[in-house]
Amino acid sequence: MMTRYLGLIASSCDLSIFSPGRIEVCAFFSSLWRVMRDARGPHWAGVAVLARASIEPSARHALTHTYKFMPILARLLSDTTSNDKKMKLLSVMQDISYGIKISWQECYLTRLMKQLTEWITQPMTEPQHRTIGHKSLTVLVNVCYGNLPAIYALMRTVDTKNFVGHLISLKDGGYGGVEVCRLLLCLSNGTRGSANTRQPDVTHSYLSCTMKTFNKAIVERDATQLLHAYTFINDLCADSDVKSFVLTYPDFSTSLQNSMKSIDELCKVVPDDMGEPETSCLRYVLKFVTVLVNLDLYSLRSHHCQLVCLCMKSSRTCLPDALELFAAIVSQYRDEGALPRELISVISDGLPGLLVPPALEPGKAGLQWLQVVGALCESGETQERVLQEVTPDSFEDTLYGVLQYTSQNGPVGTETGVQCVIVACRTGLALAPLSRHWEAAFARMLAHHQVRKLLCACLASNNGTRRRQILQIIKHHYFPSDQMNQIFGESLHNMSDVSVESASPRVDADSESLWATERLTPCQELAINTLISRLNESLQAGKITDIATSSAMELYGYKLTCLEQRLHSHAVTLQSATEHTASLQHALALMQATNTSQQDVLYTTQMQNEKYKKTIEELHKQLEDAEKTLQSFRAKLAGERLDKENQKETLHKEFRSQVANIESEMKAREREMEERYKQLELDNRSVQKKLEQQTNKNSELASVLIKFEERVKHKDKKLEEAATAEGALRREIDQRDNMIKQLEKTVVERENRLYQLKFGVYRR
User: Does the keyword section mention Coiled coil (predicted)?
Assistant: First the structure.
């Protein structure tokens, strides 16, 4: 069941479940460490989970520096394991051993060195053996690079002279050139000190090998070689003693020019068809070129236009690294105050696309986008474009998205959040004087609780560079003084765990100095050489021949047995102490995650309490103002009430006088109405009498009217009869008229007939 659940976790598509800043993730990795330490545990299911988790950068950092999985994975290395499992295990080990810090002789180092060197020196007869040897070399370089205890364990395990000769043969054969250079650099630091590596010839030979490996790895799509090339040249450039020799290397421009064609072919791959190896190759290429650009060599400025085009081509697949390279190119012209014309013409075409905020994954590319905006704000010609293309709201959303994403990623996320806050404050100080909207956005950024928290953490940290950056921001003339007072007045005694990385360089330096002091000093070496020469002289003179050889050998054998027993007991004790330290470190990581979450809750609660306290104070002030206003209203109301009572009394008097007048008028009108009523009664009686008389007359007139109606009816009857007779006469007249017309027609016809007869007679 545990194997099945681990398989489900290993096949998860969401890498955010491995973010180490949460309590449940810390508990999961600590439990996985305990399970894999058990001999009966599901080791290979755990290896699959570690392979998936190492893809996420913050989780890989935690697996390397916090949870200490290297000893457990080193136990699984053996010759009896199948080649496929060897390659899977070595792939995980080369991921989580990258950048590992080893400060003492851990008990697994000797066995690990022996196994790795056996696979490196074995004959490369089959492709799988070559892959295993290459991955073993990668793991060995990661473990030894910067770790003197691991280098001493390697030197005790192998014959250094023969092993170096084998490494040189691998380098000349084109196999892992950069990794061999890194390992040779480690061995030279462990044997003769670092003075040898500071010679210009040696440095230039390393750089030549690095550039050749870089060009070859681009053609072969080898992401591991590109990663080691980037790491090696970045480390050389970061060393202040070696950087002066790096700057004198003359072939950077030529090598980069030879690589541009291969880089363009790598960018021509369709993004939908580009797999994980091609994407990783392009990402490491951009990182490598960014390191070269940051050297600020004048000979590389002729390639800036091509590199800007490269940024625009690769922004679809590797947006964070493309933005970082673009910001590095623009920052090279910071002191000049203006960009070259040819570079501006190239930038103007693709600048709107690069200035689009990464809305889908602001946490992964937000820092680089903010760096691009900040770099463009340092030039007056591109500053106007930033004001046109970037809105304050999108800038704030990207910043807060990055801070929310990085708050759960432990020390790596804290460092990213600090860089974002510094870049955002610089950009806000550059754009606030030019626009009121940016001024309001800058004030909102400074009022945000995470921004203020990180500013306070930087001021309280041991990192001098960060403190100088924050102080430069605060002393700016446009930085609001009230915000400065609040930042300095914040409580910092709970911020000690925010920047955990500040203590690691000191611990590493102490460990390196400790191991350096264990080596013999020149005076001790001289004294030992003198003692050896004196013993040789005594031996040649025969002065020590009386010592029994068997007794001396027996004594030395007894001492060696005692030393081996003590060494074994110390190794067992060291192993148990290492495991106990790892478990304590897991508990510390869990406590730190819990403490961080509680600090966030506490800080948020404190900010809310301060906000509520300010609100309560404002409400108290409003209440006092309201009470004063109420008192004034009450006094005013009392005065108005007295005035209204006086007015009421006067109105009552007026109303009484008016009512008395109205009553007297009503009485006079009542008497008048009574008289009129009596007169109307008399008139009514006279009218009643007249009405009766008129009624009698009407009855008489009605009888007469009846008689007249009868007469009219009789006359109407006679008129109807006369009308009937008249109609009959009219019909008779019409008939006679018709008869007359017929007769006239007959007469005319007969006259015509007669005329015709007369006319015929005459003709005859």
Answer: yes
